[in-house]
Write a structure and sequence with these properties.
2 domains, four-stranded antiparallel beta sheet, Aspartate Aminotransferase, domain 2, alpha/beta, 14 helices, seven-stranded mixed beta sheet, about 425 residues, Aspartate Aminotransferase, domain 1
Length: about 425
């Protein structure tokens, strides 16, 4: 059992023992700021910045010739990055590509696989997933002429916080054609058993896709074991590839022969792409689901930060993430519960993602007060302060200081100085 101590010296000792401590220097950590929002937008790394500036310099020097430099690397950039990302989820190199954004990639996956029949036409979802997933599902159902109130099967949460895996499996009835679920719930940090759920879906002949937005870069996945049909994720949270960075798309190689639901000229076979034929010559791998020209400035920072991920390895990242989130929860139990704070995420390592769900009835105003103290948290309705001690750049001392500040805010009731009126970006 992990033993933690409630002292600043203990936090400093943990930092001295941290095998990832040197990596912090490669991120742009601002003075007097405790950044706990890496599960929403990761910090900029020096590696990402250098990679972006390199591509800008190439454009400045070569113009359109940028597509030919470095052995056509940037014309094939999606393959270069896809191969690097595939290693984080133990997938085949050609099963992962980078393109567009998460929402469009959800549309791509569903439009490819959703082939409703009168007997099997429903899409199964949960009621706690991030809203963009539901928006995409509902609109795809409408495009097929169905009413989402009938064709979208929602598995309800029993408590508004967690989802029952048994309920998901029980919901896999004969009328379900496709399933879309999150690997980690964005609000409560619950980590679902992807391998079990995927196996149960396939037993019933159901296509299943996963949204990895809140797990990629924090949790190692083994897609050779999980064996999903498709998956999507963004790269700007734990992956720290920048605001609105290019997103990723995985498709199982057993489906390479399928026609993309949304076809575009960059999904064409590279051998024939510039023949500009009107008949689509589909590239038979994940890159065949590309649509338009790749945005190099959105992709380059991802290449930079992937250097760090491959240098460190997901196992070390996950080990520290589990330890430092457990440390944070321990301090909450020791010092904050008496002030109305509580933990809303699962405690077990195998059920917990990379952030801590801190619950308080004054969560929104506490978040405002935290920012005044130089802490950057994340708020989610109705009462959740999301805190992500990202393994690559958050220290144990940061966590200790954070809890001190949360305690001070509660003792002095500083949150009463702030309005409950929501700002444009919460």
């Amino acid at each position: 059992m992990v033993r933690f101590e409630n002292s600043l010296e203990f936090a400093k000792r943990k930092d001295r023992e941290d095998v990832l401590s040197d990596i912090r220097e490669r991120f742009s950590i601002q003075e007097n700021v405790i950044y706990m929002d890496g599960n929403s937008l990761g910090l900029c790394s020096k590696d990402a910045k250098e990679a972006l500036f390199h591509v800008i310099d190439l454009w400045e020097k070569h113009g359109i010739g940028i597509w030919d430099v470095e052995d056509s690397k940037y014309f094939l950039y999606q393959k270069v990055l896809g191969e690097k990302l595939a290693q984080l989820i133990n997938a085949e190199a050609d099963e992962v590509t980078v393109m567009t954004n998460t929402t469009i990639n959800i549309h791509q996956g569903i439009s490819t696989f959703y082939k409703p029949t009168p007997e099997r036409y429903k899409i199964l979802v949960d009621d706690l997933n991030f809203p963009t997933d539901r928006y995409a599902v509902d609109s795809q159902v409408r495009l097929k002429g169905y009413d989402p109130r009938d064709a979208v099967k929602v598995i309800p949460s029993p408590d508004g916080n967690l989802i029952s895996e048994d309920a998901i499996i029980e919901g896999m009835t004969d009328d379900v054609a496709l399933i879309l679920l999150p690997s980690v719930l964005y609000r409560s940090a619950q980590l679902l058993d992807m391998e079990r759920i995927t196996a149960e879906a396939h037993k019933r002949g159901i296509i299943i896709g996963w949204d990895l937005c809140h797990s990629i870069g924090a949790i190692p996945h083994d897609f050779k074991k999980i064996n999903p049909d498709f998956a999507v994720w963004c790269n700007y949270k734990y992956m720290s590839a920048g605001p609105g960075a290019i997103a990723s798309f995985y498709i199982n190689k057993k489906h390479f022969g399928m026609e993309p639901g949304l076809a575009g000229w960059h999904g064409n076979n590279k051998e024939t792409q510039f023949k500009l034929l009107n008949d689509f010559d589909h590239e038979l791998n994940a890159h065949g689901w590309q649509t338009g020209t790749q945005p190099l400035f959105s992709m380059a920072p991802l290449e930079g930060v992937l250097k760090i991920y491959h240098e460190v390895g997901m196992e070390k990242i996950r080990a520290k993430s589990l330890d430092i989130t457990a440390y944070l929860m321990n301090l909450v139990d020791e010092r904050l519960v008496k002030y109305g704070y509580s933990i809303g995420n699962p405690r077990e390592d195998h059920k917990r993602g990379g952030h801590v769900c801190l619950v308080h009835e004054e969560a929104y105003r506490i978040c405002k007060a935290l920012k005044k103290h130089g802490v950057i948290p994340d708020y989610r309705e109705p009462n959740v302060i999301r805190l992500a001690p990202v393994a690559l750049y958050v220290s144990y001392e940061n966590v200790y200081r954070l809890v001190e500040i949360l305690e001070e805010i509660a003792i002095n009731k500083e949150y009463e100085n702030y309005s409950n009126t929501r700002t444009l970006v919460v």
